[in-house]
Amino acid sequence: MYHARTMYREHHILLTLAALLFLAGTTHAADVQAGRSAAQGKCAQCHEADDWEGEDAASLESLIRDIVAGKVKHKGKLELSAEEIANIAAYWGQGKK
């Protein structure tokens, strides 16, 4: 009886840890609507969404991160959070206004 109870407890702990690791590994999906709002507020004076037609969200996100980090020349200093970068890239990656 003791052995079965111990095995059940260990099994329960392992399942709980597996679930926590799975949840920790999932990423927050980019919010296209938030990206549209951010792009209109911070980027629209120089850029339109269709400027990026044919580019995918991953390459745009990489480019925007490099601009924010100062690795790529840009008209002005760009300050965006990681979430804003992902959202703008998702919006522009659609190639829509």
Give the C-alpha Rg. Answer: 21 Å
Q: At CATH's second level, what is the architecture of one domain?
A: Orthogonal Bundle
CATH fold-level assignment of one domain: Cytochrome Bc1 Complex, Chain D, domain 2
Unreliable residue runs: none
Distance between the termini: 66 Å
- SSE succession: HHHH
Helix content: 55-70%
CATH class category label of one domain: Mainly Alpha
Number of DSSP strand runs: 0
Mean pLDDT: 82
So what's the overall shape?
Answer: elongated
**Category by helix and strand content:** mainly alpha
Architecture blueprint of SSEs:
Layout: H1 2-25, H2 32-42, H3 57-68, H4 82-93
Description:
Helices cover 61% and strands 0% of the residues. By secondary structure, it is an all-alpha fold. The chain has a domain at 32-93: Orthogonal Bundle (Cytochrome Bc1 Complex, Chain D, domain 2). Helix 2 (32-42) crosses helix 4 (82-93) and helix 3 packs across helix 4 (82-93). The chain is elongated and about 70 Å long. The mean pLDDT is 82.
Task: Jot down its keywords.
97 residues; mainly alpha; Cytochrome Bc1 Complex, Chain D, domain 2; 4 helices; 61% helix
